[in-house]
Amino acid sequence: MSFQPPAFIAFTGVDRVAISHALLALSSRYPIEWGILIDDDDMDGSPLFPAAPVREQLLSATRVRWAAHVCGAPAKRIVTDPAAVQLNLAGYQRAQINHSFAGSNAVETANTSAFGRLRGIRTMLQCSNEFPQEQGVDWLFDVSFGKGTTPGHWPLLPATGPFCGFSGGLRADNVRDVLARIAAPAGALYWIDMESGVRTDGWLDVAKCEAVCKAVYG
User: Fold this and answer.
1) Distance between CA 16 and CA 58 in Å, rounded?
2) How far apart are CA 49 and CA 58, in angstroms?
3) Which is nearest to 103 in space by CA: 163, 67, 145, 146?
4) Residue by residue, what is the 3-state secondary structure of the chain?
5) In angstroms, rounded to a whole number, what is the distance separating the alpha carbons of residues 63 and 133?
6) Residues 66, 59: contact at Cβ < 8 Å?
7) Cβ(122)–Cβ(145) under 8 Å?
């Protein structure tokens, strides 16, 4: 089975400082972006949403590629009034703004792009059909929203346009098949993202992340 591998794999849901050394070790072997979910307005005790002090420790203790996945009320504020948002994203290379399951209109897309420019950070939005052409943000195809649901189809990567990624039910035992079905052209740049497929008992499982990396990159 042959496929064009992704530029990197995004593992979303880093949840504790105790795995910092394991994250760094795996990142030294494979191209990885580690995602931290942020929603300080609606903390429910889930390990998926580490408190601000834990996030700060992770960023200071582990020099890897980080992405902030901003959810809930903070995400909604970003897409409505980006200049007024008080959110420290120092240390992150990208920020995904999870403001709605229904996608983003032109104003929300422009505001997300402006938010990123104000902070010198790349921003991402989700889409549930074909990839949009707007190049002010990166686009993640996502119909799962962390539920581990595999989509019925995978959209084509645009020949030209924004940087795009894929998510939805990905794990070590199916990722090669999914990449073959995505059928990215030779040399194409894209990423894949996963959350539920690399967790055990609700916590991020670095061994599962390693299994995915081995399946993709060998």
Assistant:
1) 7
2) 13
3) 145
4) CCCCCCCEEEEECCCCHHHHHHHHHHHCCCCEEEEEEECCCCCCCCCCCCCHHHHHHHHHHCCCCEEEEEEHHHHHHHHHCHHHCCCCCCCCCEEEEECCCCCCCHHHHHHHHHHHHHHCCEEEEEECCCCCCCCCCEEEECCCCCCCCCCCCCCCCCCCCCCEEEECCCCCCCHHHHHHHHCCCCCCCEEEEECHHHEECCEECHHHHHHHHHHHHC
5) 33
6) yes
7) no
> What type of residue is 184?
A
Ordered structural domains, the chain, with CATH: 8-65+123-217 (3.20.20.70)
Which residue has tokens 């189809």?
Answer: 153
**Cα 82 to Cα 74: distance, rounded to the nearest angstrom:** 10
pTM: 0.94
> Consecutive 10-residue runs of the chain (218 residues): their mean pLDDT?
92 96 97 94 75 93 93 94 91 96 92 95 95 94 74 88 94 96 95 96 97 97
Q: Rounded to 5 degrees, what are φ and ψ at 157?
A: -70, 135
d(CA 202, CA 126): 23
